[in-house]
């Protein structure tokens, strides 16, 4: 809702009749393709490695978006973004570490 309120002046000023069929088709295709592909990957991952381990990887999404913006939009990547991405990848790596079995001393 906050986005709709913020965007309402621009939305009201837009001449929607000037938006062509190719633009609407591209928007619909892009939205459906990305949503369908994302859900397919998500559900396959849940089936393969479980929900808990799959949810950890959702933290990598901003890093993928940052990399895509760098490659296709020439978005600058500063040291703050690199540190943030490193922290996220470090957290994901920590969750992937093998757990050492808890050793219980033998009773004497």
Q: Care to describe what's here?
A:
There is one protein chain. This protein is mainly α and 108 residues long. It has 2 domains: 34 residues; 49 residues, no CATH class. Helix content is 72%, strand content 0%. It contains 5 helices and no strands. The radius of gyration is 22 Å and the shape is elongated. The model has no long low-confidence stretch (mean pLDDT 88).
Précis, in short:
With 108 residues, the protein is mainly alpha-helical.
- Shape descriptor reads elongated
Number of helices: 5
Question: Which percent band covers the strand fraction?
Answer: under 5%
Helix- and strand-based class?
A: mainly alpha
Q: What is the number of domains?
A: 2
Mean pLDDT across residues: 88
Give the uncertain stretches in residue-range form. none
Q: What's the total count of β strands?
A: 0
> For the CA atoms, what is the radius of gyration?
22 Å
Characterize the main sheet.
Answer: none
Helix content: over 70%
Features:
2 domains; 5 helices; 108 residues; mainly alpha
SSE layout and pairings?
Layout: H1 2-13, H2 21-49, H3 51-56, H4 61-73, H5 79-96
